[in-house]
Amino acid sequence: MNLEKTDVLVVGGSLVGLSAAVFLAARGVRPIVVERHAGSSPHPRAIGYTRRTMELFRGVGLGDAIPQAPRDHRVRRVRVRSLAGAWFEESSWSSAAPAPSEERPPCSPVNAAGIAQDRLEPMLRARAIELGADVRTRTELVSFEQDAAGVTAVLRGHDGTETTVRAAHLVAADGARSTIRDALGIGRSGRGYLRTARSVLFRAPLDAYLREGIVQFSIDQPGFQAFLASYGDGRWVLIFSDDVDRDEADLRTMIMRAIGRDDMPIEIVATGRWEICALIADRFSAGRVFLAGDAAHALPPNRGGFGANTGIEDAHNLAWKLASVIDGVSSPALLDTYDAERRPIAWLRHQQIFARDDFKAFADESARAAPIYDDDAMELGQLYRSAAVLGAGPDLPPARHPDAWRGQPGTRAPHAWLERDGARLSTLDLFGRGWVLVTGEGEGERWSAAAAAARDALGIDVTVEVLLPDVCASFGLEEGGASLVRPDGYVAWRAPPPPIDAKTALRDALAQVALATRG
User: In the chain, what are the domains?
Assistant: First the structure.
């Protein structure tokens, strides 16, 4: 049996696993990624990607490759008798959306994107390989064991050849039915099983029904309730409200019934059957194994993008921490903050799904009473609390509009446009690689000396960025203050007024948030 070694083995080569590979490889960690299928599923699932996901993809060179939606784009749904029949009321996703008079300037340099999962995955796969990841399709995990020093996994290729891989860490992105999670004995909690869904993917020339900007349709007929949605590329999915196995003739009949016409050419592409549930893993890690995506949190499909996008953010959060530990910058204690930061986010999104109208039929009393956070808060204003953040107290809400946070530690650093060497860039372009200290004009020399002293004491490089007063104000800084931003673009520490001893203040803060109580 062949023996290989790697820093990270990623099991699962779909959206989350491939995103993890890209984010790791972009930081110089070249993982092995295994996927038991030959490629993407012919029946795509996810289609909507939030601005935060697009920010993360932009940071690894994929921003221009993925077509973005207009700034004011939102996923619209309407109840109809059929596409060609009567249209009734439109339903909103977030009742907390601001009225037009309350709209703020854009809080992100990018817009959301609508692209089918089977169109996005090849882009991620190609980028991961370009950056140095070893992506192996038609390869499955047979077994794994872990000890204090690493994980030993047995892989089997499509030809039956088995390979043993010794990895320092394993990322389980193997889906809602994760065999890795089950092998670790990690349970799940949450609303639980909701229903079993059947679906059919088909092509039909129905673009004329998309002119109003509505892409989702709740079919409501006597004896026939279903859900119809466009993938924006000529493909549509019809999801039935029952768990009935239908042959091709029956499927065509049901499709025509949903369309309300029988004169359309219809090409059936694929069918699907899956369980819709809401379950969060009780732990997101066990030793050197980390759960990500649906393996960590299976959530029902929703207009907030709380499924795939949450998993992609898992991968980004985990990638910089793994890279920092592998590079010897941080102790393994930093990896404990993955569960501390990401599991509460999964629970928040679980709550928000059932607080909204789309899933209120499945909600309990606590969900119905929960406050609803608007899309800006959920996408760009979530709060992390962990040992890798200083100053995110229990009195703070779990999410808030990013402008309201004003650079609060534990939140994504704010976006503002800058001019550098004749080019326009976002403050977010300053982050995403290493540790960055933001301060105002006239303070660069003072904080650069503090950063140099911290490097000498801790062995951690910190880049100092001097920004204009109005940009510093968006970080909540007073004159002479500074803000420390993590490699994932989240604020780790902030000194709004200038400390008396900048060197000591920065060194002590960096020792806590970057080293995470190094032993």
Answer: 2-72+111-188+278-359 (3.50.50.60), 413-513 (3.40.30.120)
